[in-house]
């Protein structure tokens, strides 16, 4: 009886090893098949696919940059709104000022606020220009992708 149980154990181990070997062989055959498939792909398909991938990467980069610029522009806009409200408040307080000294203090504060608003507007101008340029680039890349995608689909279908 001990012999029967002892004989089963090595057979089970061998069976597991054969299963693992079989799975490895299947994976190896799949790799070989994929390599042959890649080697037989038409050059047009490889080229168009590479162009589409490059354009998609470029589009992703442009959209990311556009989002960064929008964030920065929106931050400037909010700062300008806040400063404009502070300027109006300071002007209202200036009208209530009793002494010439208070009037002068408010004038100085108002001038500082106006200077900061002007500075923010000057900083916002190049951001707006960059956003416009990016929008044009994005449209160009999207148009190129729109032109290439049907060709890629056509080549993929022809290759199957």
Briefly, what is this?
By secondary structure, this protein is mainly alpha-helical. Helices cover 96% and strands 0% of the residues. 2% of the residues are buried.
Explain the overall architecture.
- By secondary structure, this protein is mostly helical.
- The protein folds into two domains: 1-40; 43-159.
- 96% of the residues lie in helices and 0% in strands.
- The chain is built from three helices and no strands.
- It has helices at residues 2-40, 43-96, 100-159.
- It is elongated.
- The mean pLDDT is 89.
- Residues 95-105 have a biased composition (Low complexity).
- Residues 87-106 are annotated as: Disordered.
Low-confidence stretches: none
Order of helices and strands: HHH
| DSSP summary: helix tally | 3
Whole-number tally of structural domains: 2
Portion in beta strands: under 5%
Integer-rounded radius of gyration: 35 Å
Query: How much helical structure, as a percent, in the residues?
Result: over 70%
Large-scale geometry: elongated
Distance between the termini: 59 Å
Mean pLDDT: 89
């Amino acid at each position: 009886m001990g012999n029967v149980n002892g004989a089963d154990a090595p057979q089970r181990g061998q069976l597991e090893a054969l299963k693992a070997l079989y799975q490895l062989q299947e994976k190896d055959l799949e790799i070989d098949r994929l390599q042959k498939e890649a080697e037989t792909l038409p050059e047009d398909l490889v080229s168009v696919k590479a162009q589409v991938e490059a354009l998609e990467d470029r589009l992703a980069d442009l959209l990311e940059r556009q989002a960064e610029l929008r964030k920065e522009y929106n931050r400037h806009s909010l700062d300008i709104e806040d400063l404009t409200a502070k300027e109006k408040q300071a002007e209202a307080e200036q009208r209530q000022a009793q002494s010439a000294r208070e009037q002068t203090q408010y004038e100085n504060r108002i001038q500082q606020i106006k200077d900061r608003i002007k500075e923010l507007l000057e900083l916002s101008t190049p951001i707006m220009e960059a956003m416009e340029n990016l929008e044009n680039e994005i449209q160009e890349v999207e148009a190129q992708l729109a032109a290439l995608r049907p060709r890629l689909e056509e080549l993929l279908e022809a290759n199957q």
